[in-house]
């Protein structure tokens, strides 16, 4: 079939071998950017086109929902291209838009829709929607197919309630966080409450298993599952019920897993059950029309904190290769060419990862030219770091018209680091998205804390009051809130008028009276101080008074820690605001935060700069990557400094970050960083010293091009001729603008510049380090 041959020609011989592999197990191991995901995607297409496998019989597991979407789009395009040739004898892109759309929609209906492609959680919750009614746990508890999925905060609430109210335990000894962690761990190992008690027969083990058992009761009463159940219950169901397992085993003849190095034991058990139907080994005959195909890179294993275990990858051949002749050659393919990154970037990544002891050496050869040197920037602090990055983005985009905003990515270790970058992007009107997360000012905890401040600044803001009246929980339930709101509506007053009147509250709030009165008194106390204390002090006070941060700390999950860091970053934002502005009232601060979050200028079809944590960047690629915050204690993080295994994991994370870059890579660190409100000196990351020096452009070189040009002009007895009305210039902080006036001359020259985002500003070109663009 000529059409099939056509798309296989986009592959190198090893990739082709992997793609054309039809039955039995196959492991593809290779470094970053070697086309593993491409091979997996093309293999799905090949199974359908060449081997006529029904898409319904294919199960493809990806690491994120985004990756699943991209994979489906890619296959859809490949098929539409084939169809275009077949039906019109023409290339897809030469057809009219309408024809293209028709072909795509035809492919979607006949093929893509029927593919089982998604994350472990999404695929197995789909399976449970079919079969959960056939499952009962060890106490006979049952669920029906309309089950809800509880998120982390639902789970915490339930556990707290069990610990405090149902079992009356000492919540200092059994805080919700550690109990939750123990239960999740048990579930991840496939333990029931009884198993847990057997494993840990001491007092603590017994109590936790009791909480676990009550927790399972609650889930069942609510017909709900948690995230761990989405993997655990299918495993148990398959083990319990041969017919159910047999059905899904027969259905999914071809199973493919991307990023296999980040699979954990329970996920592995599931895959193994589906592939083998619970038997020990499969004969060659049984493999006739089925396969398991996994791709991965042990050097990119970055989820051990979620129990991922890359030895699973290393054991693949032993696990699935039995019963096959020639297992070594038949069950593994190595890819050795990197198609993504320029040679300098690749070499840096290779040398960095060689510092890890726990790894298998592998070859990763460049296919692209040397490319630019890697730039390493030493910034004075986190604000100057953001300034450098945004400046570079503007300059590069200006100098290289082929780059659009989507060509740039800013990668950081912790979510809270995004704030200074976001603020400058907004100020410069550069569209951006936060991948796999929320924009800073859209994050729940930031909105909550800002709602407190708004309610204090403007008590008529009922929306804000309602947002925080019971956040954190202070026993003010829905009925009470409805009664209060109703009363205010009937009387035509604001909610605050009711809240701040004790008599009304005493009448309306029932059991919640005390809670409501305390809340109103707290808001009132802070209102009285608006004019006398700085915003930072108020912010800190309200965070303590409201119990907001304490509540997060009690939860203690990774997610809650992240939220605490974000709230601390909001405090940093307030400090920065006070340093930079004349008007430092609460109202002015709130206005500045509102403006920072206001920009949603992403229009249809427009591209945007991507911001994300290193963990979210897995599998992605960008022409220009900024890897920021390379400081000891931040990246690598504190905890890893004294633990060699986790230091190696941080290094793998750095390897992932570096290998996202296609053409240019910028690394940066700050000499000083504001953490928890105070400025702390920082030390450059050891990872920087592990990179080959000759690949790094001299410190600050790229930045010096700016300063140099500015200082050159500074030295040259600046005259009016240097700056003209109409010149487009790049300002270090405000971005690109146009000169509208030039005042004075020589040392006294100053210029007025119109910035699209900020209006007109008068600056001294020597101080502002202006550059013509
Ligand atoms: P990661 O380990 O980061 O997930 P990967 O091994 O999955 O990387 P891909 O994302 O599949 O790598 O491929 C990296 C880049 O190289 C993509 O842009 C892909 O289109 C391109 N590529 C892969 N194989 C080839 C090839 N044979 N010829 C040209 N380009 C290729
Ligand atoms: Mg990949």
Automatic annotation (TrEMBL):
Q: Name one GO biological process term.
A: recombinational repair
What EC number(s) are associated with this protein in UniProt? 5.6.2.4
Going by the record, the broad EC class of this enzyme is isomerase
Report the residue ranges that make up the UvrD-like helicase C-terminal domain in this protein. Answer: 343-619
- Keyword field contains Iron: no
Q: Which CDD domains match?
A: DEXQc_UvrD, SF1_C_UvrD
PROSITE patterns in UniProt: UVRD_HELICASE_ATP_BIND, UVRD_HELICASE_CTER
- What keywords are annotated for this sequence in UniProt? ATP-binding, DNA-binding, Helicase, Hydrolase, Isomerase, Nucleotide-binding
- Family from the record: Belongs to the helicase family. UvrD subfamily.
Q: What is this protein called?
A: ATP-dependent DNA helicase
